[in-house]
Structure formats: structure tokens, C-alpha cells
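Input/output pair, single chain:
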Amino acid sequence: MSPFKDRVIEIITKIPYGKVVSYGQVALYVGLPRAARQVGWVLNQSEGRINIPWWRVINREGIITIAGTKYNDKMLQKKLLEAEGIEVNEDLKVDMAKYRFVPDEKFLREAQLSGKYLQTVIEKYSISN
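Output:
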């Protein structure tokens, strides 16, 4: 596996039950803030091969947007999110303000982000210890 793919999988496996993140958030926590599409690609390529909670990753507006594949589709993602207590409306939208995972500084430090980048993320999102 590539270092990027490994990091994406590592971050996604740490998203807590009952919480969601956007593709862009995962890219941010990996250290490549403009790589949201690549996060989606990693999830697509990992499908059926690696056991990760892929359903916890949705778009930045809180909408389930996967196109559907051999194994997964929007309705399965909705079902898996609802099984975790996450409300998904009929338009396949999740309230990001309520369910978004906001990591603490410890989580970000464990992600091994560079000092300056880490400080920028902490300040941008007002993350506390």
C-alpha cells in the first residue's frame, strides 16, 4: 500500500461510532488538505478488501454521495449510519453540526502532522486538548 492510502485507512478506522467526517476532513488529518477526491478513491479501491468503517465518510455538506458499487450503495450507507444512531433524512443528508467528528489535539498529534500544519488545524477548528 502507499503511505497516503495507509494514512487514510488509519484515520478512518479512528472515527468513533456515531460520528461522521467529510472526505476533506480525512484529507486534512492525513496532511493533504486538497486531497478529498483521493480519499474517495482510496475508499473505492479498498472496498471488499479492507474492513474499515467507510460509511462514516460523507461529503462536506453532510450528504451521502457514493455512486454505488458492486458491494456498497447509498441505501446501505444510510442503513449503516442509522444503525449507529445517526439521523439521515430522506434526501440522504446528515446534520454535520450534530454528528461531525471533531478530534482533539491528542488525535491530531497522533496523526503525526507537522508542527506548523498541526497548529494551523488546531487554530482553524478551535480544537482543545
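The chain has one domain: 3-125. The chain has a mean pLDDT of 88.
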